[in-house]
Amino acid sequence: CSSDLSLAAMGGRNSREQPAGPRIVAQSVAQEAVQPPLPQGQPAAGYACWSAKRKEVPDLARSWAAQATDSRGAVLLQLAEMEIPKEWASWAIADATQLASGGGFYLKAPLDPQLLVLLLPGETNTIQRVFVCPRVSAPCAAIVLRQWVDSMLPKRCKALCAEDFKVFGIDPSQFPDLFS
């Protein structure tokens, strides 16, 4: 391709001569407005969550069950053998205080999951099951779960798994909005 031909195609020979110096391009009013600075520090979310891959859930449940020395192990083995209905979403959740990037929603797991929540999405999200890694304290699990549930507001949530909460040491009365 010759330079004369490409100049003609671009309108180079017939275009106005460009002045020397910086080129000023028209800006919209929105672009001219002063942008507020981005917030500094950690985001308010103290949890990280991501979609758990169904094929990885049984191995995760078995590894958690191996760490449990009480009734939690049996519940986790049930999860390992359970076929998760296709219409349920599986969410992995973890305490994000150790993440430099902060909490929130992730496309890829930023750390090992600490909770697994199975829910049926809908007009009201229905939490079907909740599982907690045995190495995670019940107070930490409750805080992370509470923040995750609150992040869905104004969407309503309800839970059908008070027994799961109890098995993993989470007091269902801390979640009256889910069990009303």
Descriptive notes:
24% of the residues are buried. Helix 3 runs antiparallel to helix 4. Strand 5, helix 5 and strand 6 (156-159) form a beta-alpha-beta unit. The protein is of the alpha/beta class. It contains six helices and six strands.
Q: What is the gist of this entry?
A:
Helix content is 29%, strand content 18%. The protein has six helices and six strands, in the order H-H-E-H-H-E-E-E-E-H-E-H.
Tell me the radius of gyration: 26 Å
Task: Please report the distance between the alpha carbons of the first and last residues.
Answer: 73 Å
Helix content: 25-40%
- Which residues sit in consecutive blocks of at least 5 with pLDDT less than 50? 1-11, 29-44
Strand residue percentage: 15-25%
Order of helices and strands: HHEHHEEEEHEH
Number of strands: 6
Helix and strand content put the structural class at alpha/beta
Anisotropy-based shape: globular
Mean pLDDT over the residues: 82
User: How would you sum up the major sheet?
Assistant: 6 strands, mixed
Give the strand order of the largest sheet, numbering strands 1, 2, ... along the chain: 3-1-2-4-5-6
Quickly count the helices. Answer: 6
